[in-house]
Design a protein that fits this description.
66% of the residues lie in helices and 10% in strands. The chain is of the alpha+beta class and 266 residues long. The protein has a six-stranded antiparallel sheet with strand order 1-6-5-2-3-4, with helices on one face. The longest helix is centred in the middle third of the chain and has 52 residues, at 125-176.
Length: 266
């Protein structure tokens, strides 16, 4: 069973994901989106399925805006950005910065400072030995920490390199992706859904005029191989034949519950 429920096909969903990756900023319409959504929430719909038709119109508008973007240019920008990242160079620079700290030189400077200030002569042999041991201990700790930092740096850069390789692969896939065809398919799908919903809307209000249901409450319409059932009441063949033109599939169920619609087909 497939549900209409205003969902777009997988190909269109993929286009939306790729589009989001390429568009700068957290959202395509970050400035006007909150206001628009707020207005939609406050908007009152007088007829059944008006809300669903309005959602389809919004989807159609978004597809048109996406299709107007220069995707070729954005794909090229992404490809160039990824290509220009030189991780080998970045690693070499970071490693050089770690090696630039010359602990032997620091040790000699400390000893020279002691001698220059005649501090060493005031210290006992044991005290001088203790200072040298502390300096040697600090040097070993520094060497150990530097080695750990280098290993962590290598791991981080390797992980970043793999991420870039994955992103580059996706960028290559994007170059082969036919955005124009995808957006055309999306528009076509949405237009077909609009026609289908408008047909159901016309049918529902005709049924209400005939006293078969009330749009003021919940109801379920089921069409199964020529048999029409409205809220658990099977209708005569003449009525089923009258409304059969609205059903394109062998089995269709339209269900309204708490002002929300779910439409399924087989």
């Amino acid at each position: 069973m497939k549900r209409l429920n205003l969902q777009l096909p997988h190909r269109i969903a993929v286009a939306a994901i790729f589009g989001t990756l390429l568009i700068t900023g957290p959202a395509l319409h970050a400035q006007d989106k909150p206001t628009r959504e707020k207005n939609k929430e406050e908007k009152e719909y007088k007829r059944d399925l008006d809300r669903e038709l309005d959602k389809l119109e919004t989807a159609s508008e978004n597809v048109r805006k996406l299709s107007s973007k220069d995707w070729t240019e954005r794909q090229e920008e992404l490809r160039k950005t990824l290509k220009n990242i030189d991780y080998e160079k970045n690693f070499a620079q970071a490693e050089a910065a770690l090696k630039a700290v010359d602990f032997e030189k620091i040790q000699r400077s400390i000893e020279s400072a002691f001698e220059a200030g005649n501090t060493a002569s005031k210290l006992s042999k044991e005290q001088r030995a203790e200072i040298r041991r502390e300096i040697e201990k600090a040097r070993k700790e520094f060497d150990r920490d530097r080695k750990q930092q280098q290993e962590q740096l290598k791991r981080d850069l390797e992980r970043a390199r793999k991420d870039v390789e994955a992103a580059t692969k996706k960028a290559t896939e994007l170059e082969k992706f036919d955005f124009k065809k995808t957006f055309e398919d999306a528009e076509e799908h949405i237009e077909k859904a609009k026609v289908e919903l408008k047909g159901y809307q016309e049918m529902i209000y005709d049924m209400e005029a005939a006293g078969l249901l009330s749009t003021k409450g919940d109801y379920t319409i089921s069409f199964n191989n020529g048999t029409l059932t409205i809220t658990d009441k099977e209708q005569p063949k003449s009525i089923a034949d009258k409304y059969s033109k609205y059903f394109k599939d062998k089995k269709t169920i339209l269900k309204k519950e708490n002002k929300k619609f779910v439409t399924s087909h087989e």
